[in-house]
């Protein structure tokens, strides 16, 4: 019933619309047409005066009380005109007196009908608010967000425009909720929602996606502009919440992912998925705002349909690995970042650089074959478990071998655990027997392992990791590669600074 009324109101009565010049022009045409029909069918004696009621009812339904009263006044003028013009003196007062009652009924009709429409509009707005708005935060809810995004994408298709979708997650909110209680958590969510609203435009749509996740739809905005809004949002949140809330040792942050339509996705489902991927990348790569990027997407232009299907399957496998091994979520993205830094310092360009980047992104794809219990084991691995771990380069190479566009990256994946002194795996290669690309990846991969928390050890500091790399020069790592890498990263205070400055969003 509500949807039928909503359709009637917006498509037939349209009382929520503001009258335009064309609407007024059409009204005047109807008015003069009715007036002249009455005039030529007996004027004061015409039976067509009731057409003014139809005019009043239609325009009251369409534009509401105030415009309905105005139409009643116009209709009354038409009645008086026909009563006065060329009327016999004896009949004048008789017809005018009876038509005064008609005029009164006209005004009463527009007033009653206008108030009914007004009341119904208010009731409809209340029902829509209940249906569309999240009760806690006052932002739109998940259901409305889905409908609105559908509508905005269709609008973009019609007008050849673009939009940005931002996904926002409050870091460690569950810890805050568990530590201080749900009441405090609800207050924080309300305050957070108001900060979002105060930092976006009127044409943007903010919604609570679920729990501590929020979304914002930005029509006609590119990635750079959306990122600028995200940075402003982060700054406001840090200033506000670190002052008003005791949030995890007085530090609060949010992770923000951004995806663009149609640049990153050509449908709603993929757009949401890619914004979500960017958000989780922001959370685990340490760079708290991420514009969606996948090194594998660059390959699609060189692939046939069957290879694209295989590539999509590989991306799914990477997601599964990330889910299986929570300690290395984001590891591949960080390794890509470090790998490119080294490659550019060594002067690698063009095809060689791309081949290395693809290999770096996929270097751990073989871990899909390893049980979750082994990947996340807290203590030392047994000899049998270690033998299983050492097989993942071979398994990774086997997975990507069917994709011709990735064949050149096979040595990167296959040999990245080889060491300069021959003690590596799976083949025990030495020195220059190991391809340059694999030697570069070995440094980047080991550096990330050193500076990340693992089930069996805590992360090293940046300075400690640099010392470790330098200590293992010529035994585990190529000294030339280590020197090139250290020269770039030695100016930073910590790993977070490196990732913020050399984020994969720029690659």
Brief summary:
The protein has 507 residues and is an alpha+beta fold. It contains 21 helices and five strands. A five-stranded mixed sheet has the order 2-3-1-4-5, sandwiched between helices.
What does this structure look like?
- The chain has 507 residues and is an alpha+beta fold.
- Helix content is 61%, strand content 6%.
- The chain has 21 helices and 5 strands.
- It has helices at residues 2-13, 21-40, 51-63, 65-84, 89-132, 142-159, 173-180, 182-198, 223-244, 268-285, 305-324, 331-345, 350-362, 372-375, 383-389, 392-400, 410-415, 436-450, 462-471, 479-489, 495-501; strands at 163-170, 205-210, 213-219, 254-261, 289-291.
- The protein has a 5-stranded mixed beta sheet, sandwiched between helices.
- Helix 2 packs parallel to helix 4, helix 7 packs across helix 8 and helix 13 (350-362) crosses helix 18 (436-450).
